[in-house]
Design goal:
about 280 residues, alpha+beta, Nuclear Transport Factor 2, Chain: A, Zincin-like, 2 domains, five-stranded mixed beta sheet, four-stranded antiparallel beta sheet, about 40% helix, elongated
Length: about 280
């Protein structure tokens, strides 16, 4: 009888098990309340993905409010620069624009650094995305994370629209994007590329999409910025090519990027310019 009395009061094994169960339930309830009542203090890949998906959709829709929504409200300089970049993209016929989060490299609950890859395609020219790496600095404000800095990753190339207003001229086989260059100059380059493409097709043993993207920056220094290399590497060189012409079943063809050095290109006659662009 005495033993049954101790169990009933909680002093025996059955009472201790009941007390432990009540304690566990209380801890779980407290944990759930804390989780639901407080914002996450660390940036997750999923949260950043969602922010960047909205940002990408805003680029394609040319929606300034949506594009700037993910930027820190008090980052006036960044917001102005990013609004300008979006405006410069207005005439570029984009097919796609996406971000891929590669890593969240640093964070302390209030600040974070992430490495992302921007991928985009120009409609009618790129059969695969062009990719460039970016570094984002972010700050938490309440339950949201905001971008405070957006810069090229170390060794990554810059983009033409970051250098100035983009003029766009389209030819039969080409699209020419220029900064600081006149429309007549860009039209002449487009015409020269259109003459070069059939010659390349006659000589090239494999099929390719016969669509070429030409970038014409305002100086050799700007050209080097697009290539992520020192300008001394390109002085005296009229043009260089990035990307790969042609492709296989495993690796589809992508549109070329021919990047023109405007100073060196201008020293050539029309025949020399055609030879250069045909070669590239």
């Amino acid at each position: 009888m005495a033993g049954r009395g101790r169990d009933a009061r909680g002093g025996g094994p059955r009472g201790r098990r009941r007390a432990a169960g009540l304690l566990l339930a209380a801890l779980l309830t407290a944990s759930a309340c804390t989780a639901s009542g407080q914002p996450d203090t660390f940036l997750t890949t999923g949260a950043l993905d969602a922010t960047l998906e909205r940002r990408a959709a805003a680029v394609l829709a040319h929606d300034p409010a949506g594009y700037l929504d993910g930027l820190a409200p008090d980052a006036a300089k960044l917001r102005a620069a990013q609004r300008t970049e979006l405006d410069r993209l207005a005439d570029v016929p984009l097919k796609s624009w996406t971000y891929d989060v590669k890593d969240i490299t640093e964070q302390d609950g209030q600040w974070a650094t992430a490495e992302v890859e921007l991928r985009y395609r120009i409609d009618g020219y790129d059969t695969a995305p062009v990719a460039t790496r970016r570094v984002l600095e972010l700050m938490r404000d309440g339950d949201r994370w905001y971008i405070t800095e957006d810069r090229p990753a170390k060794g990554a190339s810059g983009q033409l629209w970051q250098q100035g207003d983009v003029e766009v001229v389209q030819g039969a086989h080409s699209i020419v994007l220029g900064v600081g260059r006149g429309e007549e100059e860009l039209r002449q380059i487009a015409d020269t590329v259109d003459l070069a493409v059939p010659a390349v097709s006659d000589a090239w043993p494999r099929s390719w999409n016969q669509r070429v993207v030409v970038l014409v920056p305002d100086s050799v220094e700007s050209m080097a910025g697009l290539l992520g290399s020192p300008s001394t590497s390109y002085r005296g060189i009229a043009a260089v090519t990035t990307g790969e012409v042609g492709g296989t079943g495993e690796s589809p063809a992508i549109a070329d990027r021919v990047i023109v050095n405007p100073q060196a290109y201008a020293t050539l006659g029309s025949f020399g310019q055609r030879i250069v662009l045909t070669h590239e």
